[in-house]
TrEMBL record:
This is Molybdopterin converting factor small subunit. It comes from the Bacteria. InterPro entries: Beta-grasp_dom_sf (IPR012675), Mopterin_synth/thiamin_S_b (IPR016155), Sulfur_Carrier/Prot_Modifier (IPR052045), ThiS/MoaD-like (IPR003749). Gene3D superfamilies: 3.10.20.30. PANTHER family: SULFUR CARRIER PROTEIN CYSO, SULFUR CARRIER PROTEIN SLR0821-RELATED.
Amino acid sequence: MAIEVRIPTILRTYTDGAKAVDAKGATLQELIGDLEARHPGLQDRLIEQGALRRFVNVYLNDEDVRFLGGLETPVADGDTVTVLPAVAGGAR
């Protein structure tokens, strides 16, 4: 069994258009490393200077990983990781 990673539309060019991909790892950091091995370029869109990029939100089973331990957050088979770009702006 693996961990399902849900990919936002803007990053699907790295996953050949797949909405979700499987990955493995004991922590979020390892999971992203496995994603990078399978889908090169994805890690650079998620991590900057050893931390999650400011405008990328990552959820583990609907919980924000920034409140769970960041990149050191443990993950397990059957979990779901959702990557969402932050949305800002608008018109007055």
